[in-house]
Write a structure and sequence with these properties.
The protein has one helix and no strands. The chain is mainly alpha-helical.
């Protein structure tokens, strides 16, 4: 029974990766054909850095909110 569960999980992962490849491959091909290799790498790096920075800011605000809630609730 455990082997079947393992294969089911593996099969789901393969299906998810295949779907992601089918969705993302046209975008990367278009980007490569329009901008070339070096410009497409620069474009993607800039976007990834921007998303990471935005996530860092959101995470900092969430953690600050949790910390302020804990400090505020301790005083009462």
């Amino acid at each position: 029974m455990e082997e079947n569960d393992g294969w089911a999980i593996f099969r789901r992962m393969v299906i998810i990766v295949a779907i992601l490849l089918l969705i993302l491959t046209p975008f990367f091909l278009y980007l490569y054909m329009e901008r070339g290799f070096e410009d497409s790498i620069d474009f993607l790096a800039e976007r990834i850095i921007g998303v990471m920075f935005a996530g860092l800011l959101v995470g900092a605000f969430v953690l600050f909110d949790k910390l302020s809630n804990k400090l505020f609730n301790k005083q009462e």
